[in-house]
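Notes from the pairing session

We agreed to fold both candidates in a single pass and log them together. This is the raw record for the first candidate, unedited. Please don't reformat it; downstream parsing expects exactly this layout.

Candidate A
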Amino acid sequence: MTVTNVRKDPEHLKFSITAEFDVPTDRAWRLWADPRQLERWWGPPTYPATFVEHDLTAGGTVTYYMTGPEGDQHYGWWRVLTVDAPNRLEFEDGFADDAGNPISDMPTTMAMVTIEATESGGARMTITSTFSTLEAMEQLVEMGMEEGMTAAMGQIDALLAADLKPGDTA
C-alpha cells in the first residue's frame, strides 16, 4: 500500500495523509494536473469521481461529483489558491449541490498538497486538510474522511503501473 502515514491533529485542526510512489515528482504531479487521471483515484473505489471543471490555476475552480454504488451522486468543489507545479497545490475544498454550488452549511477545508522527491528518486505526496473548527473536523472524520482518503490514495499504484510500457521503469 502506498499510504505511509495518516495523522489527525485535533489541537491544530489538521488531518494529513502521506503516500510514497516510485515515480518522479513531475509524474506524481500529473495525478492532479490531468483531470482524467485525477478521476481514476480521487474518491474511494466504490465512489468514482467525474471532474466536470478543472482549472488548476490560482483563482481557478474545480468541480466534480462522485457516483456511489446505487447511482447516488455527491458533488464537490475546489477553489484553487496556489499552484507551484510539480511540488505544491493549495485549494479550498467543499461540498456542493447538484448544480455545483457550494453548500454553506457543510464544512470546508483548506487543502495543501506537497510533492517532494525521496532519496530513492520517488515522490512523497502529502495532503493536509485544515479545518475551521474542531466540530468541522470531527464531522468530516465521522463521515469517513480517513477511510475515504486512504482508499483513494491506495488506487494510485495501479494507475501508475498501468502507465508503464514494456521496457519502462517506474
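Candidate B (folded immediately after A)
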Amino acid sequence: MKSNLTGLHHITAISSDVKRNVHFYTQVLGLRFVKKSVNQDDTGTYHLYYGNYSGAPGTALTFFPWAGLPRGRPGRGQAYATAFSVPATSLPFWQERLARLKVTTYPVETRFNDQVLPFQDHDGLRLELVASTEADPRPPTPSTEIPAEHAIRGFHSSTLALAETSATVHVLEAQMGYRLQTQAGHRARYTIAEGGPGTYVDLLTDPAIPRGLNGAGTIHHVAFRTPDDASQVAARQTLLEGALSVSPVIDRAYFKSIYYREPGGVLFEIATDQPGFAIDEPVETLGTKLSLPPHLEPHRAEIEASLPKLS
C-alpha cells in the first residue's frame, strides 16, 4: 500500500543571525511570522515559522537560527533549493524589488514551462520564485510590503541535489506514491496526488554541483504532508516494509512527525496536517508570543531567559 501523502508540508533550514532572518522573510519576502517556538531537541534555539496567513501546510518555511554558525554549502546529498509559487506575471515586480533591497539574484531561467527567478538570503540559502503557468488557487499571503497580485502563494517545489537517483526514485515511487511528471537535462520532476504547485520534488543530478556541507544557509529537512494520524501510521508501515529506518511518531504540538533519511542523504519528514498552528494562539495573533508545547511549559521562564531578543 502506498502512503497517503498530498505534497510538501514544510521545509526547515538553518540560519545564523536571528534578527536578519526575521527581517528577510517578513519584510523582504512578505511572509507572515506564524509561529515563534523553540527547537524541541535544543530548547536554547528558536524554531521560527514563516508562511501564509494561517501557516497552512505547504506554505511554511521554518528555521533553526544559531548565532555565529559558519555558512554551509548547498550541494549534493541535500535539499538544494526551495521554490515559492508566484503569479505568472510577477517576476518583473520581484526582480525590481529584490534588486532595490540588494538581495543577491541570478538570471531568470526557463524551467519546463515556467520562468524561475533564483536568489539567496543573507546566509546563502538557495531560494527561487516560480512564475508558474499552472493555476495556483491558494490565496496570496497578506502583507504590508507586497501587493496581493504579486504575493507568494506557498511552496512550488523542493529540489534535491543527488549524485545518483535510482534509489531515491524507488523510495519516492514505491514507498511514498510519487510519480514522474517530466524531465529535461539534469532535472527530473516528480509529483503526487492531484499535482500542481506545492507538490513537486525535483531531482537534480548536475555533476557541476559539489557535495553539500551542513551549516547556515542549508536545508535541514523536507517535510511531506499527510492528512491525519491514521494516514501517518499507514505511511510509516509502508516505509518500514521498504526497509527504511523510520523514527517513532513524535508529537511536535502543531503536527505529528516521523523522520527517515532517503538513500541520497536527504532527511525526510512526514507531518500531519492537524492540529495546525492555531492550537495554542488565535489565528489573528499567530507568532506574537513564544509558543511552547505542553511538556515544555513548566520550563518557560528558563527557556525565555536563554533565547536572544528578536527586537
